Amino acid sequence: MTQINHHLTDALLMSYAAGTLPEAFNLVVASHISLCDECRARLGAFEAVGGGLLTEIGEAEVMADVEDVLARAEAIDSEIDMSGFQAEAGIFPRALQEYVGGDLSAVRWRPVGMGVKQAILKTSKSANVRLLYIPAGAQMPDHGHRGTELTLVLRGAFRDQDEHFARGDIEIATEADAHTPIADEGVACICLAATDAPLKFQGLVPRIVQKFVRI
Amino acid sequence: MLSDVETAEKPIGLPKAVEHVASVTYPTSKSKRRGVSIKMNEETDWVDCMSRISASRDREAFAALFSHFGPRVKAFLMKSGTDRAMAEECTQDVMVTLWRKAHLFDASRASVSTWIFTIARNRRIDLLRKERRPEPDELPWGPEASPEPADVVGLQQESAQLAAALATLPEKQRSLIQKAYFGDLSHSEIATETGLPLGTIKSRIRLALDRLRHAMK
Question: Which of A4, A140, B141, B188 has its CA 20 to 30 A from that of A159?
Answer without folding.
Answer: B188
